[in-house]
Amino acid sequence: MDTRWKPSVTVAAIIERDGRYLLVEEHTPEGLRLNNPAGHLDPGESPVQGCIREVLEETAHRFTPTALLGVYLSRLQRPSTGEDITYLRLAFTGALGDAVTGRALDHGIVGLVWLTLDEVAASRERHRSPLVWRCIQDHAAGRRLPLDAVYTDASVTALGAMAAC
């Protein structure tokens, strides 16, 4: 039987303000880790919509993507369980908006931290994945691609509307 390889598609926000990068501190199977606000793309949403949703869920703030930072691939192998996952990450940068009053942080998120580039580099052993640092390095280097570099056909969001019925 032929098995099709299916990487897990995730979206992430690389948010910088006044020389500091926003990271979330979260509980993971490997312990307390630092990550960019990020999560899995849900059925029926575009990558931009997914990124906006994930930032809201993990930070309780609105987010407006302004550019695609890049597309990244990484692999996680958990020795304890034998789990082997490949992640395909679409990372966006943009503007963090206001906090949504009364909105709780997503399950597992302990809090938000703002770190300088040097502090992010110094905390790499606590990063949830090597993509945390790589995405921030690309942002600091000025990498930006237009948002329309990621095209979502209307059939995708139509699926979301049908699933909501």
**N-end to C-end Cα span:** 35 Å
By CATH's scheme, which homologous superfamily applies? Answer: Nucleoside Triphosphate Pyrophosphohydrolase
Q: Give the helix level as a range of percent.
A: 10-25%
**Count of spatially separate domains:** 1
Rounded to an integer in angstroms, the radius of gyration calculated over CA atoms is 16 Å
Number of strands: 8
The name of the CATH architecture is Alpha-Beta Complex
Put simply, the count of helices is 4
Task: Find the CATH topology.
Answer: Nucleoside Triphosphate Pyrophosphohydrolase
Compressed to H and E, one letter per element, the order equals EEEEEHEEEHHH
Structural notes for this entry:
The protein contains 4 helices and 8 strands, in the order βββββαβββααα. It is an alpha+beta fold and 165 residues long. It has a single domain, classed as Alpha-Beta Complex (Nucleoside Triphosphate Pyrophosphohydrolase). The strands form 2 sheets. Strands 5-1-7-6 form a 4-stranded mixed sheet, sandwiched between helices. Strands 2, 3, 4 and 8 form a 4-stranded antiparallel sheet that branches. Strand 6 and strand 7 form a beta hairpin. It is an enzyme of class 3 (hydrolase).
